[in-house]
Design the sequence.
């Protein structure tokens, strides 16, 4: 009976740790953030509002200490947050006309091929890369994507926003201050109808279906590699050379081979959707993927980094059953051996 009491205590402490202490510790180290939101305008309105509230709370706290330097810094942070909230809301409101407009594919073709193909390839439409990846990265800091699949990968709202102002759309405007400029120029000088036409053309040439790997390659491989993508045929290196992407991003983007295990699908989904929510100030841009494409990226990372996931999950219940049976036999064996002693 004593052994059963000890077992009960161990089980209780284990469960308290697993369901109480560990989740609490995790919540303190990794505060919860809202789920992925593919309505980027609404998402930015919410996160910018939260940023203002957070900055106001920080100011209220430091004012209690009467530290003039800290108070001034907190006031500056609050003013910056308020300014960005106004800027981002005005920006998304200005996109509505183009988002709601019906695009003219023929005119969009003229606009895209005359404005975009100097930097971007569209292989499927007969516009190959003008420069190789290394040369392009040397010129812009990062290799430029082929636009053939953009109408499939990204939401219409994001494409409109990105064409108008890439830095604001991808939430990296903090990187381009003090005269710095995003490598892609904004086309906010175009009319809303012209931008809608460009998006309509990109959607018209996009493939109807893409494999998980194809989505990852077009969405992520410009910056991220996969060391363990294919042990038979080799690795999948980032298209942008390491020295260029490190200079452009501030640090070398991580290899994503095992990120599905170390971070998990929920974290990766939120991070792809809006990196700033999880890592404020990061150089990682919002990717802008639609929900289907984001799920395909995560699925591909599971195929690479967690290929044995189904086997592990299938083995789990069997192992637990084995432990229960083993524990029963162990208890009976102990009882039979110690019966005479007691």
Sequence:
């Amino acid at each position: 009976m004593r052994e059963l009491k000890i077992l009960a205590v161990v089980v209780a402490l284990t469960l308290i740790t697993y369901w109480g202490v560990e989740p609490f510790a995790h919540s303190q180290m990794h505060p919860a953030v809202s789920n992925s939101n593919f309505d980027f305008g609404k998402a930015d309105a919410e996160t910018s509002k939260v940023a203002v509230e957070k900055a106001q709370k920080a100011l209220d706290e430091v004012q209690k200490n009467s530290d003039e330097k800290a108070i001034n810094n907190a006031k500056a942070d609050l003013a910056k947050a308020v300014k960005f909230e106004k800027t981002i809301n005005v920006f998304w409101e200005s996109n509505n006309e183009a988002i709601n407009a019906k695009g003219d594919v023929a005119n969009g073709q003229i606009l895209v091929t005359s404005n975009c193909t100097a930097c971007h390839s569209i292989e499927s439409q007969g516009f190959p890369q003008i420069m190789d990846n290394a040369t392009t990265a040397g010129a812009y800091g990062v290799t430029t994507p082929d636009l053939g699949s953009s109408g499939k990968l990204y939401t219409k709202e994001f494409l409109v926003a990105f064409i108008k102002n890439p830095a604001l759309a991808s939430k990296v405007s903090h990187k381009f201050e003090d005269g710095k400029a995003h490598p892609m120029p904004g086309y906010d000088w175009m009319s809303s109808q012209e931008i809608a036409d460009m998006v309509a053309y990109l959607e018209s040439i996009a493939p109807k279906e893409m494999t998980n790997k194809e989505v990852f390659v077009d969405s992520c491989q410009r910056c991220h590699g996969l060391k363990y993508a294919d042990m038979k045929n080799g690795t999948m290196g980032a298209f942008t050379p390491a020295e260029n992407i490190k200079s452009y991003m501030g640090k070398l983007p991580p290899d994503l081979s095992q990120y599905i295990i170390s971070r998990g699908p929920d974290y990766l989904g939120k991070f792809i959707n809006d990196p700033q929510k999880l890592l404020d100030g990061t150089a990682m841009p919002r990717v802008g993927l639609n929900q289907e494409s984001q799920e395909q990226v995560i699925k591909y990372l599971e195929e690479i980094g967690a290929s044995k996931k189904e086997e592990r999950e299938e083995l789990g219940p069997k192992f637990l059953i084995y432990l229960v049976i083993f524990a029963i036999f162990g208890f009976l064996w102990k009882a039979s051996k110690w019966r005479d002693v007691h």
